[in-house]
Request: fold
Amino acid sequence: MKRLTPLIAPAALALVLTGCATAAEEPPQETESGHGSVAGAEQVAEAQPQLVSIDETGDVGLHDLLTDETTQLGQIAAPEALASDGRYAFATTADGLTIVDGGRWSWDHGDHFHYYRAEPALLGTVPGAGPAAVTGAPLATAGGTGVFFSGSGDAVLLDNEALGDGELAESFRIATGAADGVVAPVDTGAIVATTDETSVYDAAGERIRDLECEAPSGAITTRVGTVVGCADGAILATGRIDALEIEQIPYPDGAAERAMEFDGRKNRPTVAALSGDNGFWLLDTRAGAWTHASVDAALVEVVAADDADGHVVALDTDGRVRVYDSEGTELSVSEPLVAESLRSGGVVDFVVDTQRAYLSDPADGVVHEIDYADGARVARELTTPTTPFVATELGR
Reply:
């Protein structure tokens, strides 16, 4: 999940349920972390989705999407942007990156999911300067979360096991001196990619391998592995940190504008990226192949649902939600929903889960819940406990 600007504690044992994955799919790499369980939580039988909203002053609220119950969680510094890995919300502030633990998450086990619920908490702030680019791991309680601070050039890998225990622990912090970059988690380490160099680091911050990636931009973890965007395509990293396999996935000959950022439903193999104003890329990390689609609308965001029907859900410059198939055929379009937020400079967040899309609308003070498989229908307009200056969905 990522945020858009216009045109510009701990949890539980789980019940095993059948999820959207099939038995033939491989789960993300497992660790010794007990299928996502953390001491002090409860067992739950289904996913526990919720919205986190933060107003301009930093008041944090939670809205339960199953019960409509709301919670005032506390206050942080004034937010500038928001990102999420499905469990945590990462708010960029003047002090760095403040982390909100929604206390709800899932553990993807390939043919089923484990679901967890714990007390939400404000975990504190990771110091850093400038906008923070966050890349989450496939599993909230294993591996690490990558953060690149563009103001200070610091590349940071946070320890996810420590985060699950309510602690902020940095596995490493590297002063790159670069103004742009990504930290993309892979197994227990990460790929650190800047305009100067791209390298693999282990959890101790030791450089163990250099990679070729010209002009890196955008990173995401999928069910298959870790993706970093490059000028000529993407690199895909799979396997353990000490025996990492790197695959180069070049663009097709005569490719359109390159992908700069990736987005998709959590832990699915196919992700999407904008290609200029009137097109999008789909990157299938299982097949190791790109597909390009041209569309008539001017788009500002695109997300691969990667469901059985291959839905691609997009937001256009007029604030409409548009739903396409994988070849770019438009299936449905909504009325303008966030036109004023885009015009006025509001931070609009757009996230897609297995059944719904959530589109924050700071100008109107609501979050739109959209059934993208049913004509881009607005299923609910949700009023959050704090004005959604920034907002996103948690519990995925």
